[in-house]
Protein backbone atom coordinates (compact mmCIF):
# COMPACT_ATOMS: atom_id res chain seq x y z
CA UNK A 1 0.00 0.00 0.00
CA UNK A 2 1.60 3.24 -1.08
CA UNK A 3 1.24 5.73 1.73
CA UNK A 4 -0.60 8.84 0.58
CA UNK A 5 0.51 12.22 1.81
CA UNK A 6 -0.76 12.40 5.38
CA UNK A 7 -1.13 15.49 7.50
CA UNK A 8 -0.82 13.21 10.52
CA UNK A 9 2.78 12.63 9.51
CA UNK A 10 3.72 16.30 9.73
CA UNK A 11 1.81 17.46 12.82
CA UNK A 12 3.52 19.40 15.57
CA UNK A 13 4.33 17.23 18.58
CA UNK A 14 3.93 19.60 21.51
CA UNK A 15 2.14 17.53 24.15
CA UNK A 16 5.22 16.50 26.07
CA UNK A 17 4.15 12.84 26.15
CA UNK A 18 3.38 10.43 23.34
CA UNK A 19 -0.18 9.83 24.52
CA UNK A 20 -0.89 13.58 24.56
CA UNK A 21 0.41 13.98 21.02
CA UNK A 22 -1.89 11.11 20.06
CA UNK A 23 -4.87 12.88 21.64
CA UNK A 24 -3.87 15.95 19.64
CA UNK A 25 -4.21 14.23 16.24
CA UNK A 26 -7.04 16.63 15.43
CA UNK A 27 -7.17 20.08 13.93
CA UNK A 28 -8.96 21.25 17.07
CA UNK A 29 -11.82 20.61 19.46
CA UNK A 30 -14.84 22.51 20.72
CA UNK A 31 -16.56 21.61 24.01
CA UNK A 32 -19.70 19.50 23.88
CA UNK A 33 -22.06 20.27 26.74
CA UNK A 34 -20.65 20.81 30.20
CA UNK A 35 -18.75 17.54 30.47
CA UNK A 36 -15.37 16.29 29.26
CA UNK A 37 -16.64 15.47 25.77
CA UNK A 38 -15.79 17.48 22.67
CA UNK A 39 -16.47 17.76 18.97
CA UNK A 40 -13.44 17.03 16.80
CA UNK A 41 -12.51 19.51 14.10
CA UNK A 42 -10.47 18.28 11.11
CA UNK A 43 -9.63 14.76 12.22
CA UNK A 44 -6.11 13.79 11.12
CA UNK A 45 -6.70 10.03 11.50
CA UNK A 46 -9.00 9.46 8.55
CA UNK A 47 -7.42 6.16 7.47
CA UNK A 48 -5.15 3.46 8.82
CA UNK A 49 -2.33 4.92 6.74
CA UNK A 50 -2.67 8.13 8.77
CA UNK A 51 -2.22 6.17 12.00
CA UNK A 52 0.97 4.61 10.63
CA UNK A 53 2.21 7.95 9.32
CA UNK A 54 1.69 9.61 12.70
CA UNK A 55 3.36 6.72 14.53
CA UNK A 56 6.38 6.97 12.26
CA UNK A 57 6.46 10.75 12.70
CA UNK A 58 6.26 10.40 16.50
CA UNK A 59 9.03 7.76 16.42
CA UNK A 60 6.85 5.18 18.17
CA UNK A 61 7.08 2.88 15.13
CA UNK A 62 10.26 2.45 13.09
CA UNK A 63 10.52 2.95 9.34
CA UNK A 64 10.86 -0.74 8.50
CA UNK A 65 7.96 -1.69 10.76
CA UNK A 66 5.84 1.08 9.24
CA UNK A 67 6.43 -0.30 5.74
CA UNK A 68 5.46 -3.80 6.89
CA UNK A 69 2.30 -2.48 8.55
CA UNK A 70 1.24 -0.73 5.35
CA UNK A 71 1.76 -3.90 3.32
CA UNK A 72 -0.17 -5.89 5.91
CA UNK A 73 -3.02 -3.35 5.86
CA UNK A 74 -3.21 -3.62 2.07
CA UNK A 75 -3.78 -7.37 2.38
CA UNK A 76 -6.17 -7.05 5.32
CA UNK A 77 -8.15 -3.82 4.79
CA UNK A 78 -11.05 -4.83 7.02
CA UNK A 79 -8.75 -5.61 9.95
CA UNK A 80 -6.92 -2.34 9.36
CA UNK A 81 -10.23 -0.47 9.49
CA UNK A 82 -11.07 -2.21 12.77
CA UNK A 83 -7.76 -1.10 14.27
CA UNK A 84 -8.41 2.47 13.13
CA UNK A 85 -11.75 2.30 14.92
CA UNK A 86 -9.98 1.14 18.07
CA UNK A 87 -7.53 4.02 17.72
CA UNK A 88 -10.34 6.57 17.53
CA UNK A 89 -12.11 5.04 20.53
CA UNK A 90 -8.84 5.05 22.49
CA UNK A 91 -8.28 8.70 21.60
CA UNK A 92 -11.80 9.63 22.72
CA UNK A 93 -11.52 7.70 25.99
CA UNK A 94 -8.08 9.12 26.76
CA UNK A 95 -9.10 12.69 25.99
CA UNK A 96 -12.26 12.41 28.06
CA UNK A 97 -10.35 10.88 30.97
CA UNK A 98 -7.66 13.55 30.90
CA UNK A 99 -10.25 16.31 30.62
CA UNK A 100 -12.14 14.84 33.57
CA UNK A 101 -8.97 14.98 35.65
CA UNK A 102 -8.31 18.57 34.56
CA UNK A 103 -11.85 19.47 35.64
CA UNK A 104 -11.46 17.65 38.95
CA UNK A 105 -14.03 15.01 38.05
CA UNK A 106 -14.04 11.23 38.28
CA UNK A 107 -13.44 9.64 34.85
CA UNK A 108 -16.33 7.73 33.31
CA UNK A 109 -16.28 3.92 33.80
CA UNK A 110 -16.71 3.35 30.06
CA UNK A 111 -13.67 5.46 29.27
CA UNK A 112 -11.57 3.63 31.84
CA UNK A 113 -12.76 0.30 30.47
CA UNK A 114 -11.54 1.27 27.00
CA UNK A 115 -8.18 2.42 28.37
CA UNK A 116 -7.77 -0.72 30.44
CA UNK A 117 -8.52 -2.93 27.43
CA UNK A 118 -5.90 -1.24 25.27
CA UNK A 119 -3.31 -1.17 28.05
CA UNK A 120 -3.88 -4.87 28.66
CA UNK A 121 -3.54 -5.62 24.94
CA UNK A 122 -0.25 -3.72 24.80
CA UNK A 123 1.17 -5.36 27.91
CA UNK A 124 0.18 -8.81 26.69
CA UNK A 125 2.58 -8.33 23.76
CA UNK A 126 5.55 -7.14 25.82
CA UNK A 127 8.53 -9.37 26.48
CA UNK A 128 11.69 -8.88 28.52
CA UNK A 129 14.75 -8.69 26.29
CA UNK A 130 18.48 -8.17 26.98
CA UNK A 131 19.64 -4.57 26.83
CA UNK A 132 23.21 -3.67 27.73
CA UNK A 133 23.86 -5.01 31.21
CA UNK A 134 20.18 -5.45 32.01
CA UNK A 135 16.76 -6.10 30.57
CA UNK A 136 14.08 -3.98 28.99
CA UNK A 137 10.48 -4.34 27.88
CA UNK A 138 9.95 -4.47 24.13
CA UNK A 139 7.49 -5.69 21.53
CA UNK A 140 8.83 -8.37 19.18
CA UNK A 141 7.92 -8.01 15.50
CA UNK A 142 5.60 -4.98 15.82
CA UNK A 143 5.47 -4.75 12.04
CA UNK A 144 3.48 -7.98 11.92
CA UNK A 145 0.54 -6.81 14.06
CA UNK A 146 -1.83 -4.18 12.76
CA UNK A 147 -2.58 -2.83 16.22
CA UNK A 148 1.11 -2.30 17.03
CA UNK A 149 0.81 1.52 16.67
CA UNK A 150 -1.57 1.51 19.64
CA UNK A 151 0.80 -0.24 22.04
CA UNK A 152 3.24 2.63 22.74
CA UNK A 153 0.30 5.03 23.12
CA UNK A 154 -1.37 2.76 25.67
CA UNK A 155 1.87 2.36 27.63
CA UNK A 156 2.42 6.13 27.61
CA UNK A 157 -1.14 6.71 28.80
CA UNK A 158 -0.74 4.20 31.63
CA UNK A 159 2.45 5.90 32.79
CA UNK A 160 0.98 9.41 32.64
CA UNK A 161 -2.32 8.57 34.30
CA UNK A 162 -0.58 6.83 37.21
CA UNK A 163 2.23 9.37 37.58
CA UNK A 164 0.61 10.80 40.71
CA UNK A 165 1.00 14.41 39.56
CA UNK A 166 -1.06 15.80 36.71
CA UNK A 167 -0.90 19.36 37.98
CA UNK A 168 1.05 20.38 34.88
CA UNK A 169 -1.60 19.08 32.48
CA UNK A 170 -3.06 21.96 30.48
CA UNK A 171 -5.46 22.60 27.63
CA UNK A 172 -4.58 25.19 25.03
CA UNK A 173 -6.60 28.36 25.46
CA UNK A 174 -6.86 29.03 21.73
CA UNK A 175 -10.36 29.21 20.22
CA UNK A 176 -11.24 25.87 18.67
CA UNK A 177 -7.91 24.29 19.60
CA UNK A 178 -8.24 22.25 22.78
CA UNK A 179 -4.88 20.50 22.42
CA UNK A 180 -3.52 19.06 25.66
CA UNK A 181 0.06 19.43 26.88
CA UNK A 182 2.24 19.26 29.96
CA UNK A 183 3.33 22.69 31.13
CA UNK A 184 6.99 22.18 32.01
CA UNK A 185 7.81 25.88 32.10
CA UNK A 186 9.57 27.01 35.25
CA UNK A 187 6.74 29.24 36.45
CA UNK A 188 3.95 27.06 35.00
CA UNK A 189 2.67 29.89 32.85
CA UNK A 190 2.31 28.19 29.46
CA UNK A 191 -1.13 28.87 27.97
CA UNK A 192 -0.86 27.77 24.36
CA UNK A 193 -0.06 24.66 22.36
CA UNK A 194 2.53 26.83 20.60
CA UNK A 195 3.17 30.54 20.70
CA UNK A 196 3.56 30.57 16.90
CA UNK A 197 0.01 29.32 16.39
CA UNK A 198 -2.64 29.94 19.04
CA UNK A 199 -0.42 32.29 21.04
CA UNK A 200 0.08 34.68 18.14
CA UNK A 201 -3.58 34.49 17.12
CA UNK A 202 -4.58 35.49 20.64
CA UNK A 203 -2.00 38.29 20.71
CA UNK A 204 -3.28 39.73 17.42
CA UNK A 205 -6.89 39.47 18.62
CA UNK A 206 -6.11 41.32 21.87
CA UNK A 207 -4.22 43.99 19.94
CA UNK A 208 -7.16 44.56 17.60
CA UNK A 209 -9.64 44.65 20.47
CA UNK A 210 -7.60 47.27 22.32
CA UNK A 211 -7.33 49.48 19.26
CA UNK A 212 -10.98 49.06 18.31
CA UNK A 213 -11.99 50.46 21.70
CA UNK A 214 -9.86 53.57 21.35
CA UNK A 215 -11.80 56.72 20.30
CA UNK A 216 -10.90 57.84 16.82
CA UNK A 217 -9.26 61.26 16.73
CA UNK A 218 -10.97 63.85 14.55
CA UNK A 219 -9.10 64.88 11.51
CA UNK A 220 -8.22 68.56 11.55
CA UNK A 221 -9.25 70.72 8.66
CA UNK A 222 -6.47 72.62 6.95
Strand-helix topology:
Elements: H1 18-23, E1 26-31, E2 38-43, H2 48-57, H3 63-75, H4 77-102, H5 109-125, E3 127-131, E4 134-138, H6 150-161, E5 169-171, E6 180-182, H7 195-213
Antiparallel strand pairs: 1-2, 3-4, 5-6
Please explain how this structure is put together:
This protein is α+β, with helices and mostly antiparallel strands and 222 residues long. The chain has one domain: Orthogonal Bundle (Jann2411-like fold). Helix content is 46%, strand content 13%. It contains seven helices and six strands, in the order αββααααββαββα. The strands form three sheets. A two-stranded antiparallel sheet has the order 1-2. A hairpin with an 8-residue loop joins strand 5 and strand 6. Helix 2 packs antiparallel against helix 3, helix 3 packs across helix 4 and helix 4 packs parallel to helix 6. The longest helix is centred in the middle third of the chain and has 26 residues. The N and C termini lie far apart (73 Å).
Q: Tally of extended strands? A: 6
- CATH level-two architecture: Orthogonal Bundle
**What global shape is seen?**
globular
Strand order, sheet with most strands = 1-2
Poorly predicted runs of 5 or more residues: 217-222
**Structural class of the helices, strands and pairings?**
alpha+beta
**The CATH topology:** Jann2411-like fold
H-E string: HEEHHHHEEHEEH
Average pLDDT figure: 90
Fraction of helical residues: 40-55%
N- to C-terminal distance: 73 Å
Amino acid sequence: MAARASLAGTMKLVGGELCLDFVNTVGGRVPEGGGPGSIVLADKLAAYTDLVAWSRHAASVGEADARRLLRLAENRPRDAADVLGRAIRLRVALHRTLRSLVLGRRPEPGDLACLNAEIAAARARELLSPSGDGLRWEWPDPGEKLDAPLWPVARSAAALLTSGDLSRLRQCGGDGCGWLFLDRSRNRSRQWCTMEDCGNVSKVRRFRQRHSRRPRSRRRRT
